């Protein structure tokens, strides 16, 4: 991120797009753009970019781009889809750039190579004349799941046969709304989808059962009426496809805000309830995207679910279950998204995406010493990590949280963290403040090589160490560099990013 000039915030951009100003310079005319034509528009004052087959004039957006003009210019006059996907695939550019739309790329006829999976629709193969990344390699094809279904008087059972070792409930995401069933199964970095418009209506609750040994997933639906179904339903666009997870668009479901509690002066714990017809568990280290319509534009931001409290603290009522998602969110006084979030009332709905993230459980299960470096809300991924390591990982000898905040008042769950350290001798916590008051007796400063060499130390030369780091981008980037300078390898460091 780069500092933006005053008057160039996302809200200012939204206002400009609503002002009726001609942002493409084409008076609303849409055209077919050839590659040659696109390539001509490669200057800051005349910059077109293609994303997924659609061409946008991004010149008016230059000064509003949070990543800076130079980043945007990297894709000037070209297909920027890959670059866009690498940096922020989740940003809803269709909505944000709709007033900048110049037109579609002219479609070139293509011949599909042999290895294209037969499960991809013709339309997908031809999309904007460029072959999608959805072409499967041989290894992915070997893992392709398949499905079948059967019925009793009252139930419909869909069985997905996967070839996935360690199949578990976190790898299955099911949504069923108004006869539309969408069941996604995650297999390594691929996603298999059963997506149909069901033959008949079903009841709200959906059950998922996993037979781990035979790598089989069962999705059980209750018929609304006890009638015989002739078929499961009409296949929808992405039905029976097996593609890279990152190529699947984000899927959202509406969740109800059921409570909102203060954590600190500016941070709240939001509890969202998933629909009964959704089966979704957010794995440790992963985040979801929230989507809200702000001033008529869809805005999306990532958040990392936490638990309602830390492990070993049994004082709170136990409401920790799969039906709720807890989010610890800092409300910024000038924040576009968090201000809108803070205005949600109990009972209001908000769109929540399926989870994403790349922390592997095995990275933690094989560690003997875990160091967690968290700054501000960068604490959020550490909550599930702490719960998992302290309750399920037997080889871990120490877990050390080094928590950076501005002031004492900004520290989340200080009391709980201190209690946890007293209760579990493997766990240690250190608070470091960057703007302490005179009374602060603890450590102060920002992340530095000196601080890290003091707090992140192997207790044995051959110890298996994992260091997880999360916070503002400069904090994470500097931290990773210092750790590398101190001799930690890439494999020993996990940085949380979007
Ligand atoms: P914005 O409108 O983006 O602004 C935030 C603050 O920064 C404001 O004070 C604004 O004035 C200032 N600002 C914004 N852009 C600039 C700029 N370019 N130059 C100078 N100042 C600027 N947050 C949480 O609270 N909890 C979480 O669990 C969480 N999880 C996350 C997970 C991931 C993977 C990532 C990437 C981020 C996560 N975040 C989390 C941060 C979250 O996504 C939002 O960025 C945050 O809520 C701020 O959004 P906003 O629209 O309210 O603020
Ligand atoms: P904050 O402004 O309260 O700062 C907390 C601490 O971070 C400071 O005390 C300081 O020690 C450190 N810090 C802040 N700016 C720094 C800088 N420029 N260089 C070095 N250190 C710095 O933090 P906040 O408002 O709670 O913000 C937390 C950040 O964490 C957000 O940017 C959010 O996007 C990010 N976050 C990322 C993820 C993720 O990627 N998975 C998850 C949660 C939060």
TrEMBL record:
Ranges where the Cytochrome b5 heme-binding domain occurs: 30-106
Chain ranges of the FAD-binding FR-type domain: 250-362
GO CC term (a single one): endoplasmic reticulum
Q: Which GO terms describe its biological process?
A: superoxide metabolic process
Q: Which CDD domains match?
A: cyt_b5_reduct_like, p23_NCB5OR
Alphabetical keyword list: Endoplasmic reticulum, FAD, Flavoprotein, Heme, Iron, Metal-binding, NAD, Oxidoreductase
Give one Pfam hit by family name.
FAD_binding_6
Q: Name one GO molecular function term.
A: cytochrome-b5 reductase activity, acting on NADH
As cofactor, the record names: FAD
Q: Where found? A: Endoplasmic reticulum
Q: Where is the CS domain?
A: 142-233
* InterPro entries for this protein: Cbr1-like_FAD-bd_dom (IPR008333), CS_dom (IPR007052), Cyt_B5-like_heme/steroid-bd (IPR001199), Cyt_B5-like_heme/steroid_sf (IPR036400), Cyt_B5_heme-BS (IPR018506), Cytochrome_b5/Flavoprotein_Rdt (IPR051872), FAD-bd_FR_type (IPR017927), FNR_nucleotide-bd (IPR039261)
Family under the similarity heading: Belongs to the flavoprotein pyridine nucleotide cytochrome reductase family. Belongs to the cytochrome b5 family.
Spell out the protein name for this chain.
Cytochrome b5 reductase 4
Query: Which source organism?
Result: Buceros rhinoceros silvestris
Q: What is the lineage of its organism?
A: Eukaryota, Metazoa, Chordata, Craniata, Vertebrata
